[in-house]
Amino acid sequence: MRPGVLSENFEAAIFGHSLRTYGSVCLVVAPVLIVCAFLVLSGSQVARWVGIAAGAIGWISGIWWMPFYPVWSLTYIAIGVLVIYALAAYGGKAENA
Description:
Elements (H helix, E strand, L loop, with lengths): L18 H23 L3 H20 L5 H21 L7
């Protein structure tokens, strides 16, 4: 297998068979999620829902990677579930005491 190209099993993958495409997607998505993380800490409800959607996408994509990387996929799924739970249960507006 040539460096930078996924194995033959990934020929029908969502973003194609080039690792360069996957890297480009990560370079676009990562800054958006980092900004959302800071906005969640400041109490933004929009950022909270973006985080929940990102956790759901991560959780679902972890299932797709299961046949190739089972341990990492389970870890990725667990992180996605924890993100969804944390943002859904504790990400709401703070109640005044």
